[in-house]
Amino acid sequence: xxxxxxxxxxxxxxxxxxxxDRYVSLPQLVVVGDxxxxxxxxxEGLTALPFPRDSGLCTRFPTQIVFKRSPEQKVDISIxxxxxxxxxxxxxxxxxxxxxxxxxxxxxxKILSIASQKMGISGCASGGSSFSDDTLKIxxxxxxxxxxxxxxLPGIFRKPTPGQTTKEDIAxxxxxxDKRIRxxxxxxxxxxxxxxxxxxxxxxxxxxxxxxxxxxxxxxLTKPDLVDKGAEHSVLDLINGKKSRNSLGYTVxxxxxxxxxxxxxxxxxxxxxxxxxxxxxxxxxxDRTGISALQKRLDKxxxxxxxxxxxxxxxxxxxKIQECERQLEQLGSARQSAEEQRAYLTRISSAFxxxxxxxxxxxxxxxxxxxxxxxxxxxxxxxxxxxxxxxxFSESYSRHFTSNGPPAVxxxxxxxxxxxxxxxxxxxxxxxxxxxxxxxxxxPEDWTYMQGIDIISWIRNEFDSSKGFDVATINPSxxxxxxxxxxxxxxxxxxxxxxxxxxxxxxxLHNVLHHVxxxxxxxxRLWAKLRPSVLECYQRAxxxxxxxxxxxxxxxxxxxxxYFADNLRKRRLDRVEKRLRSLKxxxxxxxxxxxxxxxxxxxxxxxxxxxxxxxxxxxILKSYYKVALKRFIxxxxxxxxxxxxxxxxxxxxxIFSPEFVSLLPENELxxxxxxxxxxxxxxxxxxxxxxxxxxxxxxxxx
Length: 702
Fold this sequence. Notes:
- Residues 398-434 are annotated as: Disordered.
- InterPro entries: Dynamin, Dynamin_GTPase, Dynamin_N, Dynamin_stalk, G_DYNAMIN_dom, GED_dom, P-loop_NTPase.
- Keywords: GTP-binding, Nucleotide-binding.
- By secondary structure, the protein is α/β, with parallel strands linked by helices.
- It has helices spanning 3-17, 39-47, 83-88, 105-118, 167-181, 202-210, 232-239, 265-277, 291-331, 338-361, 377-395, 455-465, 478-486, 490-516, 520-554, 562-581, 599-602, 609-647, 652-655, 658-662, 666-673, 677-701, and strands spanning 28-33, 63-69, 74-80, 135-142, 148-152, 186-193, 217-222, 250-252, 416-418, 448-450, 586-587, 595-596.
C-alpha cells in the first residue's frame, strides 16, 4: 500500500474517532447480513480475531475493527458513543491498552461483556435494552499489519425471542443498518448464505434501496459447503456475474464446519483452499473465492473509495463549518446571563437607532432595508405633510369665500355635501389592533360643508342676529364666532393627518425591529414592552392636535403677520376699484388712456353701513383665515408630527435605545432577551458540531 493511501486511511479513522461521521459522510466498509448469515466467520477470517460465534455478544452493537502498521504491537479498545447515547448517558471511559499476545477468545469475550455493561445492554428480561448503537472500536497496531478498517453491524432478525429481544430491538437493528449503508461513501458487504434463495434475503433489498445503481454493494456468499448437490451452478452464476446486478459482484468464502470450530486459523484457511480446489467450485474465478481473495478485494476497495472521496470529504468539512458558522451567526450571541442579554439588546437597539436616524435624515444609502419605501420615513411623512397642506387649502372651509367659492344660490336652498377627504378609517392598520383605541375619533359623516347659502348672505344673517342696543356696528364676539364656524373642519382634517402619520411610524417601528432582530420571540416580547410607551407618544401627539386646534379656533383672532394687513388693505381697495369700474367712464386722449369719472357719479357706489360692515367682515375673515390656516398647517406638521412623533426627546423613535436597555432590571432582561430552551440546545448542538468539524479540519490539514 502506498504511503499516501495509508495516510488517507489513517486520517479517515481519526475522523471516525472524532465522530465526524455524524456530520459528514466518510468512506467505510460496512458488514451487514442476517444473524445466521456467517458474518462472524467472515470477520474472523478477515481480521484473525477470535470472534465468538456462540455467545451472540458480538452482534449486540456495531464493532469497528481497525488495523494499523506501527513498530509497537498493541490493541486499543474504546467505545464511541452514538448521538442518542451521548445525550442520555455519562461518557464511557476508554478501555486500557491490551497486549496483542494476550488477545485470545477468552479475553475477547470479557471485553464484549464489559462493553455490553458499559453500553447499558442488560436484556429485555431485566427491563433493559438488548442492543446499543454505541460502537466498540478495536484498533490493532503492529509491524505486520496493513491499514484496514471495517464495521460489523448486528445481524437482521425478524421475530423477537421471548426474554431476549423485542419488536423494538428489531426496529433498532434495522435503523442502525440503514443509517450506515445510506452513507453514499460506504461500501456495503452484504453477507448471504449460499444455500438460501438470495431473493429472500432482506439485506439485498435494503442495499438496493440505498444503492439503486448497485455500484457500492459487494455480495459475500458463505456456507457453500451446505449447497445442495446440483444447485451449485446457481451460486457459480452469481460468482461469475451472470445473475448479479452488482457492479462489484460476489465473492464466496467457506466457513468452518461445526466440528472444526476449535481449529486454528491456518487450518481453516487450508481447508478452505482445498474446498475451492474441488469440483465444481474449482471453476470459479480465483479472485472471487476464498478469504484471501476477499481480503485483497476489500483492501483495494477501501483504498479506492478513500482516494475517490478524500477531497470531497475535505470540501464537505470546510462547507459544513461555514454553514454552521452562518447558523450560529443567525442565532446571535449566547443569552444566558444578564450581561449577555443586556449586550444583545444593546446591539439591537444601537442598530435600531442607526436606521431610525438615517430614515429621518433622509440618508438612505448603505443599508439594504431602504430599498423598501416604507423605511424611507422622511420621504413618507413629507409626502403626507404636502397632502395635508393641499387638503387644508381645498377642503377646510365650511363655506367658500366670494372670490373662490361657488356662485351664490337663492336663499333658502341651503344643502350639505360630503367632503372628499379620506376618513381616518382608510388609514387604519388592521395588523396593529392596539391602534384602534386612539384612531377611531373621526366619522366620515362628520365631513361636510355647506354648499347652499352664499357666505355674504350667511354673514349678513349672523350680523343681523347679533345686533344690540349699543352704537357699535359690530358685536366683538361675532368675528371669532364666524371664524369658528368657517374652520370647523380643521380638527378632523388635522387628526386624520396625524393618525396617518402614526400609522406609518407604527409600521416603520415594526419593520425596523424585524430588520435588526431575527429572533421572533425576542421581537414579540420586546414589542410588548415598548408598546405602552409608544402608544403614550401617539396620545401626546393627538392631544397636541386638540390643543393647537383649541388655541387657533377658540381663542382671540390674533396675528402679527403683516400679510394680514396687506391682504385686508388689498381686498378693500379691490372692492372699491371694482365698484368704480362698474360706473360709466370716458377715455382720455393721453398716452396712459386712464378712465375719467365724474365726481357726482362716484356717490352712487357708496353702500349702506350694514352692507359695508358685512363686506368688511368678509374681507377680515378671508384675510385672517389664510394667515391662520398657514399657521395651523405649520404648527401641526412641526409640533404634532415632527416634535411629538419624530424628533422630540420622547418620540416613538427615541424609546428603544441603549439607554432604555441599560435601565432594564434583570428580571425583564430575562423575560425579553432570554433564550428559549430550544435555541439554547440548538446553539450548543451547532457549537459542538463546529468544534468537531474544526478538529476534523486539523486532521485533514495535518
